[in-house]
Amino acid sequence: MQSLGSTAQEREAARLDVADKIIKHRLVEDGDRVLAVAVPADAKLEAKAAAITDTAAQAMERLRNADRAVDEAFAGDTAELDSELQKYMPSIRSWTTKRSGASTPPRESLIYGFFDDFVLFVACCVRSGLSSQGLASSRLILPGNKRDFKPVDAEDAERVDVVLGACDIDTPVAAQAIERYAHMFCIVEVKRSGGFKTALPQLLVYSRNLYAWQGHRRYLWGLTVCDAEVCAYVMLNDTVHVSSAMDVTTADGRLSLIILLVRWSLCLEDQLGYDSTIRRIGDSDHYEIDCTDDEDSDSVVHTYVTSMCLKSADSIIGRHTRCFVANPKVADGPDGTSDNSSSTEVVIKDAWSPAPHESDLMLDPRSEILLMRSITQNLKGKVHDLVYPKLLLGGHAQLRRRHVSVPDTTAAILGPRDSTAAQDDDGTADDNNLDKMVFRAHRCIVMEPRGYHIKTVSSDAELVIVLADAMKCHSAILDHCNILHRDLSTNNILVVRKDGEALPRGLLIDFDYAIEVDSEQRAARPARSGTLPFMSVNNLINADTPRTALDDWESLLYIICWLASSGICSEDRVDTQDFARKPIHRWRQAGVKRFPSISGVLLTNRGKELFNSNKYMPTSYQLMDRLRTLLLKDGKQQKVAGSKIKLKALPLASALPHLNMLDADKEPLNVEKICKLIRMLSNLPYKPIILARLRTDAKGTVSLILGNDADDNGSSTYSWAVTYSTWAQKRGNAAASKKLPSLQPKFLPLFASIATTQLPHILPRQEELNRELEELSRLWTPDEASVNAVSAVQKLIYSAVQKIDKNVRTRLEMFGSRRYGICQSDSDFDFLMTMMDRKMLIDKVRERFISQFKGALRKSKGIPYAIYIPKARVPIIKFAFRRGNRLYNGDISFNDRSAIFRSNMLRAYIKMDPRVRIVLMLLKQWGIRREITSKDVLNSYCVTMMGLTFLISQRVIPPLQLLATTVIDDRAWDRLSEIHKSPEEISKLYTAQGTSNESGKMSSTAQCLQTGHRLPGVDINGSNGYYLGDSEMLQVWKSPNEKSAFELTFEMFRYYGTEFDPKIHAISPRLGSPCVLRSSLTKLDAPLPNSASLQSTELPKGTQLLAIEDPLVLSANSGRKASVQWVAGLLWEMRRAAWAMTKGLEDERFGVLDRLFLPPTAEIYTDAGIWASAYKQLIPDIPDTTGDTFSDVVSSSENYSTISLEELEDQELVRLSETHGEPL
């Protein structure tokens, strides 16, 4: 729910806003008390830590002064240790030497190394101090070997500066491979200047991921480094405690940091923030969990092994609730392994709940343990046919302190405070009392049955069943137990599916906010509680009215609104951007004052805007399709009375025989029923694709009419009726939004000089550029988990095929970006399934097999949904695959090998020269960051073709579709140039494409550019799919062009931005030319644009300004969807990209690629001033006035903002640099 309808930028902004509020209201400057949290609880360990600290501090001070006393530095008993530590001293001296006030702080990248060496110095001392004793609870605190990087398991573009890991004591003292949040002990945020509050927001934002990826964290540690000042943090459920600043330029500051690092090395695991009752199993995402029951006097420990994490903690502040699916642990077998899968499946909930004083933990009336125990006992045997949560175990976690068990509470972390904070009814601290810690207790509940998220229902009928069951449970608990839930939400109503039962059941869970109510009045005292989007109005405004069951029933109404808007199940889920535009999206984060209008919105016509209109009765769809066909075919022209307007009309009575004949098995239609079905679509909030209306004439004849609007004189009644296509609507919306790019400044910089500008020397920033390209390459390379997910889903697909027919022969191949190797870890899976049995040539047999296969795939483990789209150009199954905490989307198409051809050809080009991958990678990243690429206008593949074609034209790679060898000379390139200039030569190449000779093989008249021999033909769906793919020949290729990938990318952007003329030129990957004459490509379905097409904001039928020839289907224009103004914006973006690359090399304040990838924020272009006709400067044929859409044409003499685009972008880059650290 948190990410629905939000972009990555919105999520980051929201997280930073939360971090700012934490700093403002919940930050406790706790001095030395923070360091005291890590004092080893064992007396012997505490003494040992003090001894190692003394050794390390003395060694550091001795070696810092070694330049002045070299002979003394390596003398006595410490000589061997000093010799080992000496390698860290240059960095430590640089960092710990006090600088004058006028000196510039070192770059952040240097501070990373300074800090790492300091940590390694202390780790060496710890290793030396423990070498003779080897304490079991000791460890080494070591830095990661990556700095300023995006963790592998990061969801958004988050980059952490430095990380620390708690490693085994025998680990070599060196930087470790710590690339996942799951393996980090703590995060270090570095700033070159400013106080700790400049670094703390980012630290809080990134540290929340440790909770999300580590199911055994009780609390978190963190560090900020601002130049030479280090601060340590303990992050608890309600407060963040910060230590005094440790200034490492002073002896006291260095000593404090050493004390902390040594204490971390010797303290107990739970003092590092880890949960002693939850243990990670190896390097997996599974845990062993120890649970007890408060009512068990023997305190028997029950151990469970988790199989899945249902809910993780993902925020700094809160209860940190986690839910696991688990099985009781069974004893290991003779082979040393154990199988827990056959035992009873339970759900374990682990949370930190507000509680009274420690002595009253077991008697807390708001304890979920007691409430669940009451529900289990009171409903047993009293209700029938009801699914409700049953408590198996419920207890408070325990810690071992000096051989004594004590409850795990916040007092056990920081020690007892002067008093506990005043608490609201929902357990959060009052803002005025945050200097006093809220008392919380660590509770663990084991319960059954297991449920699934409410969006796993397969239909609206199942949703009704689940919601009804949940509210039946709600009423039973209120009637029999006097417990009011008070927190109904989409997360707290689950779907339960029992073996042997076709229909699901509903389950109400999570009694964190529940409370016992008066058995007479059934009301709870007023208090705000629950989940924001679903709170009742009285709850939101915190009214004095007592809370009753009616508040929960009101929440149910909002749950239905939410599901109707966002999609009931995974198959009809609304697109994120579509949802963001709905008023209901504000429910997710709006302030309390905006919510009293909820009821008003629902009870007026505006309520229609809330709901998702993508899902209507199939009967209405089918009916409208048939009516439209009949209307266009058999409709008769009729005059409207009193008007010259002619309408095409179809009397519904005459259409009935045709409609009923199509569905002979169904109940016959009549006029009344048709009208009813049509009017079911009357509230669609979209413009109709076909203007069709129901009209009743004076005789009472009802007709469907098509044509211009007719005057409605009141004697006729009609309603909207549309033939509605979800895919057509989405394409239409996307195309409309891309008519004009969102970047429309009043003074659109021409960057005219870029046409002749030379790229500055790269050498001064080569090392920095290499590092940025290396990081970009990692981003566009799938990680191991993603690669393993591909193998896993392939096995599932093959298994699903076998379940249908074990004898059927199929071949499964991957295509798309994952095939040619430029993809990210979360990129989609694109598969082609080729069915090789002859019986599959029969349409009905093939369609039945695909339909059955979809059903078998849907039932496979890890596949939340699978949808078969039989009427697509190529039959396709869309599915999702869940593995671990990731959800991958995928497509399976059937028997269409054209996608395999395109992917394999791209892969061959990429293998020929490493620069190809870098250029295409830069191009794809630029397209995403600048919001250029769109599936509905110009997708990533089309942009890739533009880049590939340019590289061929620069002789970086040869045109593989016109060669039989890669050993070519200038004659071949000269021959290619002659072909580009001659329409006759191009026509010869394209002759006889798509025909077969007597042997059934594809024929071709094309000749090899080098040898002159005829090239073979390869039949790919009726087109010639030949290209040179011999791996040995690809390896011997040597390009005559020696320019770097960065230079080639610059020249590509400059060419398309300044020289490419879309009215004249076409882009042909087959010919290797981005400037072949459009008129020469006679097979390309891209009519030349005329003057009329350039004078309209709409794209006239048949006009295609951007021509990109498909390398396989010669008639297909990949750029056909781009409107005139959108192409203008694309070319301006290309020109700006070339300018940004030159500025990236010149401006050392930022990374080389930072400006190139700077997102087009609204603030920049709003400040620069927006005007719609700016793009007329890019295409001279566009006149000054181009219709209503461009009515705000302005004179160049008018005085607008004096702030240049460059200045505004500089401001944004500075802001991002301060937010993220450097580089961006």
Automatic annotation (TrEMBL):
GO terms for molecular function: metal ion binding; poly(A) RNA polymerase activity; protein kinase activity. Transmembrane segments: none annotated. The keyword Transferase applies. Residues 769-910 form the Poly(A) RNA polymerase mitochondrial-like central palm domain. Keywords: Cytoplasm, Magnesium, Metal-binding, Transferase. The keyword Cytoplasm applies. It is found in: Cytoplasm. It comes from the Eukaryota. It is an enzyme of class 2 (transferase). Coiled coil: none annotated. Its cofactor is Mn(2+); Mg(2+). Residues 1047-1112 form the PAP-associated domain. Residues 175-563 form the Fungal-type protein kinase domain. Belongs to the DNA polymerase type-B-like family. This is polynucleotide adenylyltransferase.
